[in-house]
Amino acid sequence: MDGTIKLTTKRLILRKETMADAELLYNALGCDPQITQYTGWNPYATRASASEKVAEDIRNYEKPGCYAWIIQHGEEVVGTVGAYGYDPDASSIEIGYSIFRASWGNGFASEAVSEAVRYLFENEWINRVHAWCHSENAASSKVLERAGLRQEGLLKRAIRNSDGSLSDQKLYGAIYKEWGL
Ligand SMILES: CC(C)(COP(=O)(O)OP(=O)(O)OC[C@H]1O[C@@H](n2cnc3c(N)ncnc32)[C@H](O)[C@@H]1OP(=O)(O)O)[C@@H](O)C(=O)NCCC(=O)NCCS
């Protein structure tokens, strides 16, 4: 497995994180409540946790099945995409991603997530990619469908919202043999 190598798409560069990214991730992801509206957790919520998250991602580059990319449009950082929880027995992994709010609606998530999924299947030979998605997160559903994942299930009242209410959660997935068909 090659792990988190540099990837390029038509408009974007996906590259490894460095410690210099932590402050930007804290400001753009940690300080924006809309980013975590549908995800229920925020590893960048404080400067310290953002630093620890980036340091952990960097340490994990040494381990097989750990992926954490910074998404860049030209010189500008616009978000992150990663894959976690690699299960070597099932050859399966979960993906997650965030785009800075100032860059929403440009197709960046669709482009970056599609490339990450392609890489996991075609380069890393991972058999199954899945993602969890809040049932009201319509933008994220579109991103996952564009990347070739399909809804596999619906977990009723499985995610706690910040106002204390519970919402349904969709499970999206794809296996390599069927992906892109
Ligand atoms: C979800 C997220 C990554 C999308 O990023 P993005 O770069 O704006 O996504 P894209 O531009 O590639 O595509 C989004 C699509 O959803 C559509 N969309 C956006 N908001 C929508 C809404 N409220 N309802 C319906 N569709 C919506 C967009 O119009 C676009 O479709 P189009 O290309 O047909 O116009 C971004 O909103 C985000 O970072 N959210 C917070 C973190 C998060 O939810 N991560 C995913 C966890 S599963």
TrEMBL record:
Q: Which InterPro entries match?
A: Acyl_CoA_acyltransferase, GNAT_dom, Ribosomal_N-acetyltransferase
Superkingdom of the organism of origin: Bacteria
| Pfam families linked | Acetyltransf_3
Please identify the protein, giving its name as recorded: GNAT family N-acetyltransferase
Residue span, N-acetyltransferase domain: 12-173
